[in-house]
Amino acid sequence: MPQTYKRPPIIEAAIEVRFKDPVTMLVVDRLRDRLLPRFPACETVTEFAFDISALSTGPTQVQSNVHSYRMTSSTGTEIVVIGAQTALFSRLAPYPGWDSFRDEARKLWNMHRKIAGVSGVSRIGMRYVNRLDVPANNQPGIQVEDYLRIYSEYPDWEIGKPSHFSCQMMAAEEGGPFGVVINTASTPSPVPGCLGLLVDIDVSRTQSVFHSERSLREVLEDMRTEKNRLFEIAITDKTRAILNDEGDI
Question: For 85-103, what is each residue's pLDDT tens digit?
Answer without folding.
Answer: 899 999 999 999 999 999 9
